[in-house]
Write a structure and sequence with these properties.
single chain; two-stranded parallel sheet; Rossmann fold; 173 residues; mainly alpha
């Protein structure tokens, strides 16, 4: 998401990583993050890149910190990763509350009020074994869903009058 003050946000994230003793992959994207990261810091603490496919990156991460859009939220949860949402606007606060309610992440941290201390505390919270277990269980359940293939089968069933596979199983067919 575009950041109002990308340099300040980058400094906040870097300070939080230092406080939490964590490393990060920082996707700079549209937000303009990574402004002012020293080369030695990048090598030791942060790997900055413009973008990466979430389905490839997230399974390799211990936790996911993001803006809270529906798609990014789904990907973080699909791979069973604790998620820290830093909503900016729109539906993002809603998704932050849902992640919290599901027990798959700490309370959302609105980006406008984000502090290094709050982000460091949220990163520490993702190490809680019960939170990690709930995120992993949710990921397992999401990966078991038929997704687009299931939706296509249901739509095809409507068009042909055939029940979807799930409905056929329920009817013992």
């Amino acid at each position: 998401m575009p950041a109002e003050d990308a340099e300040h946000l980058t400094r906040t994230v870097l300070e939080a990583l230092t406080l939490a003793g964590r490393r990060a992959v920082l996707a700079t994207g549209w937000g303009g993050l990574a402004a002012g990261i020293a080369e030695d810091q990048t090598a030791a603490q942060v790997h900055a890149l413009e973008s990466a496919p979430h389905a490839w990156l997230f399974p390799r991460c211990a936790a996911v910190v993001h803006h809270g859009g529906a798609g990014t939220t789904h990907e973080g949860l699909r791979w069973g990763r604790p998620s820290i949402l830093c909503p900016v606007f729109g539906d993002q606060p809603f998704w932050g509350r849902q992640v919290l309610k599901a027990g798959a992440g700490p309370p959302p941290l609105p980006q406008k009020r984000l502090t290094a201390a709050a982000l460091a505390a949220a990163l520490a919270a993702t190490e809680d074994p019960s939170l990690r277990a709930r995120a992993a269980a949710l990921g397992e359940a999401l990966r078991a869903e038929p997704g687009a293939a299931g939706a296509a089968a249901a739509i095809d069933g409507l068009a042909t009058g055939e029940p979807a596979a799930k409905d056929r199983r329920a009817a013992g067919q």
